[in-house]
Amino acid sequence: MSAEKTRRAKILVVDDDRAVVDYLVDELDDAGYVTAGVTSPLQALEEIERADFDLVVADVEMPEMRGPDLMAAIHAQRPLQLVLLITAFGSIELATRALREGACDFVAKPFTIEALTHAIERALRERQLRREIVRLRRLIEDDEDETLVAHSVAMRKVVDVARRIARASSTVLLTGESGVGKGAVAAFIHRESGRRSLVQVNCAALPATLIESELFRRPPGRLTDAREDRPGLILEARGGTLLLDEIGEMPIEVQATLLQALETRRVRPVGGTQDVEVDVRVIAATNRPLEADVRQGRFRPDLYHRLNVIRLAIPPLRKRREDVLPLVDRLLPRICERVRGTTLGLSAPALRWLLAHEWPGNVRELAHVLERAVALAEHDTILVEDLAGEPVAIETPGESLREAAERGIPLAEVELAYIRRVLERVDGNKANAARILGIDRRTLYRKLGASDEPG
After folding, report:
1. Are 206 and 214 in contact (CB under 8 A)?
2. Are 37 and 25 in contact (CB under 8 A)?
3. What's the sign of the alpha-carbon dihedral 275, 280, 281, 287?
4. pTM here?
5. Average of per-residue pLDDT across 357-386
6. What is the C-alpha to C-alpha distance for residues 420 and 416, in angstroms, rounded to an integer?
7. How open is the CA angle 251-253-255, to the nearest 5 degrees?
8. Torsion-angle region of residue 152: left (phi > 0), alpha (psi -120 to 50) or beta?
9. How far is CA 318 from CA 282, 356, 359, 362, 391, in A?
10. Average pLDDT, whole number, for the chain?
11. For residues 417 and 340, what is the distance between their CA atoms, to the nearest angstrom?
C-alpha cells in the first residue's frame, strides 16, 4: 500500500450524474480514501480552490464543461494537480489526447471499482515516485557524476565495495555489459581514493600500432599528431589512477609490457634506457568474457590474474529497475538544457514504459532514448511514442480495444493477455510486473490463477 493510501488520500469525484457521484464516493470511501463529490465542473473548481485534493476523478462528457477543459482550468489554478478521467468507449481518442495535455491516466467505461482503484493507486504511486526521486538526490553520494545512481540493492552493494576499496592501491577489474556505467564506477573509486588525477585510455578506440606508444610514450611524429616528446599515459597518471577501458581489446603483444609495469611498478619508456618508478592505481574495465579470451589464447592468463585482484561486476539496468527513474531524473534535465534549453515533463504512460523496457544498452541506451525523446517531443510532456520512436500499441488502446470488441474477446482474456505481456517484458519478475500494472502481488497471482499464491 502506498504512502498516499496510508494517510488516506483525498479524492474529488466530478460527474454530472448524481447517482454516479454518490456511488463512487461510497465505494472509494470503503476503499480507504477520503472522498468528496460534486455534479458540476464549476463546483469542482470552487472545491479545489478551497481545499487540497490528492486526485481529481472527472467524467469526460459533461454538459457544462468537458473533462479535458475542466482539467485545463484546474491546472491553471494548481499546475501539479493529478487528474484522472473517466471516459466512454467512443471518447477514448479524446482521453488519449488528454494524456498528452496533462491527465495522469484514464479509465474507460464500463469499469469496475477495482479497475478504478488500481488506476488511482497507480497515479498516487507515480507521484510518490517523483517525490522519492527528489529525496534520492540528497542521498546519492556521487552528485558530481550524472550516471552513478545507487538506489537498488544491487548497486548499493557495488558502491559499498567501491568505497571500501578506494583507498587501497590494488588493481580493480570492472565487468559488465556495454553501457552499464563502468566508467562512472571507476570515476567514483578515483574520487574516493584521494589520488591526484584520473587518466583514461580506451583500448578499443586506438589502433593496435599506437596503444603501446600511448601508454609508455607519445613521441613526436605523424601517427600520433604530437609535436614534442611527452611521457606516456602511465607516467602521466603517476600519483593518480589509470583507467584501461575495454581492456579485452588490448593486443596480446602489448599485454606483456603492461604486465611487467604492473608487477614491477616501473616503466621503461619506448626508446628509453632507464626504468622510471611509477605509483599508479590501475582500474581495468571490460564487457568481454576475459576468462573465455584466456582459454582461447587472446588474453594472457598472468595479466588477467594481475588485474583480477578486486573484481566488481556492474549489474545491467534490467536487473536494477529501481535505478531507472532516479537516472531519468538525473539525466533528463541535463539533456533538456543541452538539446532544447527548456524543461520537459514525462507522461504517466511514459514513466511506465521506462520501467518496463528491457534496456539492452543499459544506462547509455537510456540516455540516448531520452535525448531522442527530447528532440522529437511536440509537447511539453514526453509521450511513449517519443521514447519508443514509433507509436506503441499497448499505450494507444483505442485500436486494440476496438479489435478485441469486434472479435468478441471476453474482458478477462484481454486482461490476462495484457498481464502476460507485461510479465514477458520484465522477464517474469512478478514484483516488477505488479508495480507496472498498479496492483499488488497477491492480486497478480489471483489473476494469473497461480497455485503458489503467497499466504
Report:
1. yes
2. yes
3. negative
4. 0.56
5. 89
6. 6
7. 75
8. beta
9. 29, 9, 6, 8, 23
10. 81
11. 39
